[in-house]
Amino acid sequence: MPMDAIGRFMAALDPDQRAAIGAKPRAEQQQLAAAWERELEADDELDTLDELSPPAAEAEAARRVLHREAG
Questions:
Q1: What pLDDT is stored for residue 49 in this prediction?
Q2: How many other CB atoms sit within 10 Å of the CB of residue 3?
Q3: Cα angle value 67/70/71 (rounded, 5°)
Q4: What span, in angstroms and rounded, lies between the C-alpha atoms of 11 and 48?
Q5: Which residues, given as ranges, of the chain have pLDDT below 50?
Q6: Comparing C-alpha atoms, which of 11, 57, 18, 65 is closest to residue 38?
């Protein structure tokens, strides 16, 4: 299991997203991973989902971060 924030963030992405984010500069990956961690910490809805399925909560947080970055 990846231990650093970027590794955990990358693991939460689907394969296509993982490839796209993996091609970005490390600094941008760090910014996205930090935003992902903030999303996980701040959203109570994700806390509930995390109790049921931690991977699903992480994937949802990653989806939200990438949606915000794209939009």
A1: 78
A2: 6
A3: 85
A4: 20
A5: none
A6: 65
Q: Please state, in angstroms and rounded to a whole number, the distance separating the CA atoms of residues 16 and 47.
A: 26
Three-state SS letters, 1-27: CCCCHHHHHHHHCCHHHHHHHHCCCHH
pTM for the whole structure: 0.86
Q: What is the SS3 assignment for 29?
A: helix
Q: Contact at 8 Å (CB) between 40 and 54?
A: no
Per-residue model confidence (pLDDT) at position 31: 97
Q: How many CB atoms lie within 10 A of CB 45?
A: 9
**What pLDDT, on the 0 to 100 scale, is given for residue 11?**
95
